[in-house]
Amino acid sequence: FTIAATTLFSIASSHVILESPRPFKFAAYGPANPITEDGADFPCKIPPGVTKLEIDGSPTEMAIGETQTASFTGKAVHGGGSCQFSVTEGFEPTKSSVWKVIHSIEGGCPKANEGGNLNDGETPDKYDFTIPDGITPGEWTFAWTWVARIGGDPAEFYMNCAPIVATAGKKAESRESKERIDHVSKRAGFPGLFMTNMGEVSDGCSVADIQKQNKAISFPHPGDSVEHPEGTENLV
Question: How far is residue 216 from each of residues 38, 188, 207, 209, measured CA to CA in Å?
């Protein structure tokens, strides 16, 4: 048992997982792995039969409109790839939850200019983002999703989630009726989460052919907040 547990820890520690904002408690080793190819544990690597994620400590508070930083741990960055940060309302996401993309990283995530995996002493990159004004204060689930440049077989889609509380920023305006309507309008305008490599859950979308080329993808709807750590020349 000790040997098996040690082996699992070693494997899990080498895979990239979300570090900050602090994710929900990992139900098992699974969160270090991609979503299953049939999407059974989408969203957030929730094991089948589990309906509620457990919060690890306290949710991360994030002021709307102020700079936040996402960080990761692990060595298996698979040559980078493309990531999205998105949010959905509440702390109990389901397959029917509506995810709103707030930031996209096309290429170079979770590590830029990396040909494979990290060596000892190297760490994944950190990425700044903001909770945009179109998000109202309250409880949200934050998601990091990742399509690796160097994919496995079958093709992979990674997802980790964290509970956050969006708070009014320093420049927050008063909550008049018209402003609340504006917030709802802006939120409705956010692009939906790009989903792939999950069978019917992702409507049959697959980027396996692109991953076989060792290329990072450009998202069809990345939103207004986009960065390209490696430029755009090699995106597909």
Answer: 22, 28, 10, 11
Handedness of CA 26, 126, 221, 88 (dihedral sign): positive
Can you give the length of the chain in residues?
236
Decide if pLDDT at 131 tops 70.
Answer: yes
pTM of the predicted model as reported, rounded to 2 decimal places:
0.89
Residue 101 phi, psi dihedral angles, 5° rounding: -75, 130
CA separation for the pair 87, 100 (Å, rounded): 5
- For residue 97, name the pLDDT band (cuts at 50, 70, 90): very high
Per residue, the 3-state secondary structure of 69-135, as one string, reads EEEEECCECCCCEEEEEEEEECCCCCCCCCCEEEEEECCCCCCCCCCCCCCCCCCCCCEEEECCCCC
All structural domains of the chain, each given as residue ranges with its CATH number in brackets, are: 18-227 (2.70.50.70)
Beta strands in the chain (DSSP E): 17-20, 60-63, 67-73, 81-89, 100-105, 127-130, 138-148, 158-167, 226-227
Model pLDDT for residues 18-34, shown as the tens digit of each residue: 999 999 998 765 667 89
137-173 CB burial, b ≥16 within 10 A, e <16 = beebbbbbbbbbbbbeeebbbbbbbbbbebeebeeee
**Structure token digits, residue 136:** 């109202």
